[in-house]
Amino acid sequence: MSVYVITGVSGGIGFGFLKSISEDPENLVIGIVRNKSATEQKVTTELGKRSNVHIVHGDLTNYASLRQAATDTNTLVGERGIDYLVGNAAFVVQFDAYSPIGDLGDEPKELDDVADKLFKTNVTGNIHFFNLFMPLVLKGKTKKVIAITSGHADLDFINNFDVENSALYAASKAALNIIVAKFSAQYKKDGVLVFSMSPGVVDVGQFGGDLTPKQIEGLTKFQSRAQAYAPHFKGPIPVEAAVKTIRSLWDRASIETGYAGAFVSQFGNRQWL
Question: Which residue numbers are catalytic?
Answer without folding.
Answer: 150, 169, 173
